[in-house]
Amino acid sequence: MEYRVNDNELIYMIRDGDDYAIKRLFEKYKPLVTSIANSFYVFGRNLGIEFVDLMQEGYIGLYNAYSSFNEYNDIKFYTYALTCIRNHLNTYCRNMNVKKNYYLNNSISIDDCDSSLFDNFNYFDEEQLFVNFKNLLSFKCSIVFELKLNGFKVKEISRLLDIPLSTVNGRISKINHTLRSFY
Length: 183
Known about the structure:
The protein is mainly alpha-helical and 183 residues long. The protein is 68% helix and 0% strand.
């Protein structure tokens, strides 16, 4: 008959630095993490979230559970781990649902693409792009733009062109506005 270590003993052994205890805890709670990840995958697959990502995040939630578990509270580790895993996955899915992650979630890996798609793709010419943008600027702004692009600080540009700092800052503001509309 094999001796089964309870959760409190495992946590005690983990906190003593026993790597085998960590492995046993993760193996013991793998079905729980899988079950919770499955329930979140129903929602997450519409967001482009992969099941393996949910499993990984579930394990992070389990790690957070045993790291922050206080055995002196009147609560079982299983209940605490369940809550931590669910909360972590809930936060992860909520963050992946944010609009700023839309393009990241819906992107396609280059490895998954057919290489013939890129045969007719023209790479942009950086010099031509620079010239096109510079043509949109006034002569005075283009001088400030080139100096700033070459690493000069605002004070140095002011001294070189013999103009006040406020004028340099104003021209940089115009450049930024033009750049936003250009891009």
